[in-house]
Design brief:
By secondary structure, this protein is α+β, with helices and mostly antiparallel strands. The chain has a single domain (44-152, 162-194), classed as Immunoglobulin-like (Sandwich). It is 18% helix and 30% strand. It is built from two helices and ten strands. It has helices at residues 7-35, 172-179, and strands spanning 44-49, 62-63, 66-71, 78-86, 95-100, 107-108, 117-125, 134-139, 165-170, 188-194. The strands form two sheets. Strands 2-8-7-4-5-10-9 form a seven-stranded mixed beta sheet. A three-stranded antiparallel beta sheet has the order 1-3-6, with no helix packed on it. A hairpin with an 8-residue loop joins strand 4 and strand 5. The radius of gyration is 27 Å and the shape is globular. 24% of the residues are buried.
Length: 200
């Protein structure tokens, strides 16, 4: 007596194999999608008067000499910041610079100085973060400064201009000394640009 084939069993096996491949494919495609998600835009920059510890996450709205302390950025995130005069900003920022977040998401600028007045701090990052974020603060020194400044020696102004420019590396030990701390974790690199003060 002839033996009849069993199509239902073979079809069931093919269906099971296809389902397994589909699940594996969706899992493989799902992993890169999860990894590609951009970091959350939680980064913030605090304004600290000189002497305030770097780890302090409070803002100080009235300062004399000060520095910028960055928190909660992605490791390696590059942050560009600018400080403009208020209420009517000049065409160029009074001070501007770049800092890169260390592995713990923090960074700090060098000490900064500005003439007495109201100012607005804004920033943006290479990951598209910081849009629309800003801080307004006041510089109020007993002896007002005539122009924006950073401490330390500088060379003469570049040819054809009356301003100064500086690019440098900022190590943890130097940063700790600048803000009165014992230590700062991570290596922080910065680029700082002084606003030209030549003819307008």
């Amino acid at each position: 007596m002839p033996t009849l084939p069993r199509p239902c069993r073979r079809a069931g096996a093919r269906t099971t194999a296809l389902a397994a491949l589909t699940l594996a494919g969706s899992t493989a495609f799902g992993v890169p999608a999860a990894v590609a998600q951009p970091p959350v835009d939680n980064g913030d920059i605090k304004i600290h008067k000189m002497g305030t510890t770097f780890s302090d996450q409070s803002d100080e709205s009235k300062v004399c000499d000060f520095y910028l302390a960055a928190f909660d950025f992605a490791a390696g995130e590059q942050v560009h910041w600018e400080i403009d005069k208020q209420p009517v900003p000049d065409p160029r920022p009074e001070l501007a610079g770049d800092i890169t977040a260390a592995g713990n998401g923090t960074a700090q600028s060098v000490p900064l100085g500005l003439p007495n007045g109201q100012y607005k701090l804004t920033w943006s990052t290479n990951l598209g973060h910081g849009a629309g974020k800003f801080k307004v603060f006041e510089v109020d020194c007993a002896t007002p400064k005539p122009m924006a400044s950073t401490p330390g020696p500088h060379g003469g102004p570049p040819a054809g201009g009356g301003g100064l420019a500086r690019d440098a590396a900022f190590a943890p030990v130097a940063g700790a000394a600048a803000v009165g701390l014992a230590a700062v974790s991570g290596v922080v690199w910065f680029r700082l640009r002084r606003r030209p003060h030549g003819s307008h």
